[in-house]
Amino acid sequence: MKTFPIGVLLLSAMVGRSLFGASPAPSPAQEPAERAARYEAVSTPQFVQGKRLVSLLGIRRGDSVLDLGCGTGRLAEYVARTVGPAGKVVGIDPSPQRIAIAQRRRREGLSFAVGGSDDLSSFPDASFDRVYLNYVFHWIENKAETLRQIHRILKPGGRLGISTGYRDRPSRIRSLIRESVREALGEVPPDLFLSPFRLSARDLRSLAERAGFRVVRLQILSFRAYAKDPEAVIAFLDASSSGRFLSGVGEQERSRILAVLRRKLAKIRTARGIEMEHPAIFLVAEKPR
Ligand SMILES: C[S@@+](CC[C@H](N)C(=O)[O-])C[C@H]1O[C@@H](n2cnc3c(N)ncnc32)[C@H](O)[C@@H]1O
């Protein structure tokens, strides 16, 4: 089994909430440069998972590929090597700061732009052989429209690949976060860990089919990684969630929750570090010819 952290999901649970009168979740469009740089530094787990996703997608030399939510562009750069000079890879992401890092990777056949799932209108119909979203779909609210747009811009026979957080099985760290919130605040709002943006494998299949796709593969793959200490776990959660981890609580509540979480994480630390594990849904679907 491949190993790599996972964090994103756990956090995603807490995203988008405005608990205890705190401000709403930050938007990727406003991400500060230092957080984008931190994401680049801690994103190896996503990169490992992304390589798995693109291997399932069967990307070929000469293909035209869209990386939707490309982050700092590591995976797009990897895919560009597969498609070669005759192919094309385009990466878009709503964070200008992540795209600024991605632009350093730009070369012939590999380009990046600020953009997101809410507007794919600049891409003509039937213009891509492959479109993938690596660890992005659980951040997208309007999933049905996003899938319809991806269907439109894919060529007949083209394929969509998604790896995304899984709603139905809480990881150990997610449980620890929940316990920490309860201990620190005395309560856990009932929907705290049920981000409306996460979904089950069955829901993902049904959304893809309703958008006109034929599902080729749908599976849950479990990934693991090790963080050296509690601070590394928290840094990963913050960067991989674009700052949305615990953003739904005020500063004082956040400090109290983190103090409890640090203690709990320290207790599960072994000689290998702190294990971060979670299952993710992998979907490959085809636009029928
Ligand atoms: C966990 S990161 C994954 C980044 C990249 N795919 C990777 O494998 O490293 C999630 C990314 O989704 C982006 N994102 C958030 N909302 C989005 C949307 N509506 N459309 C496209 N990307 C989005 C964020 O800016 C962030 O870069």
Span from first to last CA? 35 Å
Architecture in CATH? 3-Layer(aba) Sandwich
What name goes with the CATH superfamily? Vaccinia Virus protein VP39
Please provide the ordered H/E string of secondary-structure elements: HHHEHEHEEHEHHEHHE
Number of domains: 1
What Rg, in angstroms, do the CA atoms define? 19 Å
State the CATH topology.
Rossmann fold
CATH class: Alpha Beta
List how many beta strands DSSP finds. 7
Structural class: alpha/beta
The biggest sheet amounts to: 7 strands, mixed
Q: What is the 3D form?
A: globular
Give the % helix: 25-40%
Strands in their spatial order, largest beta sheet: 3-2-1-4-5-7-6
The number of distinct helices, counting runs of at least 4 residues, comes to: 10
* Cofactors, ions, other ligands: S-adenosylmethionine
Spell out the key features of this protein.
single chain; 289 residues; alpha/beta; Rossmann fold; 7-stranded mixed sheet; globular; disordered N terminus; binds S-adenosylmethionine
Summarize the structure in words.
With 289 residues, this protein is of the alpha/beta class. Helices cover 38% and strands 21% of the residues. The protein has a single domain, classed as Vaccinia Virus protein VP39 (Rossmann fold), CATH 3.40.50. The chain is built from 10 helices and 7 strands. Strand 4 (128-134), helix 6 and strand 5 (154-165) form a beta-alpha-beta unit. Helix 2 (33-42) crosses helix 9 (230-240), helix 3 runs parallel beside helix 4 (74-83) and helix 7 (172-185) packs across helix 10. It is globular. Bound molecules: S-adenosylmethionine (SAM). Residues 8, 28, 43, 46, 50, 68-71, 75, 93-95, 98, 116-118, 134-136, 139-140, 240, 242 line the site of S-adenosylmethionine.
